Amino acid sequence: MTWWIGIIVSLIISFIIIQIAIRIPPDKRKTLMISIGMTLILIELVQQAYLKHFGIWNAKSSLPIHLCGISGILAGIMMIRQNYSGFEFLALIGSPGALHAILTPQLNHGPIPFLIFKYYVSHAGIILVPLFFAIVLGYRIKESSWYKVFLLCQLLILFVGLANFMIGSNYMYLTKKPLVNNPMIIGEWPWYIIGFEILGLIHILLFYYGYRQMRPLPY
Number of structural domains, the chain? Predict the structure, then answer.
């Protein structure tokens, strides 16, 4: 039930935000964007403080260096300071990652109400922001963007893999597969990582095609 409520509420609020943004003047739209950006960044900071306060913060599981953690912070920054490369990253790999996280949630710290709320706000925000840029601001995906994003992902994997090695963590599930019922997780380590790479590229291409089909609004 919580899962369905989270998905439905996320869809409704995202739809409302985009509809409002389309209809308000640029100065008010900028205020809206900054408010959303600050919310996405602040909720990440609040989560860190929350985990610290209740003594459940752990460097091995609480740092925001999963793909969605990085994308969530980037989404917040993007609403305050626009960047084309950030838009491409969120559109092509942040969005599919967040979509899978919403459909097959894994709550690392358990079903704590605030953390469930934060989970859906952050992941919905990752999907909302590039749609906002495409629909409201008229951003479009360039032809070269898909392989640039894929190469950037390889650099990100190296960075996170090094962090995992140094602190014994499992960010981006590079050392142990996630404990979720997802048919796209095939085999054990390291074979499922190869599957991640292939499926990641497929998702990048699918979202690349979807965003390339977007046309300017008639108003």
Answer: 1
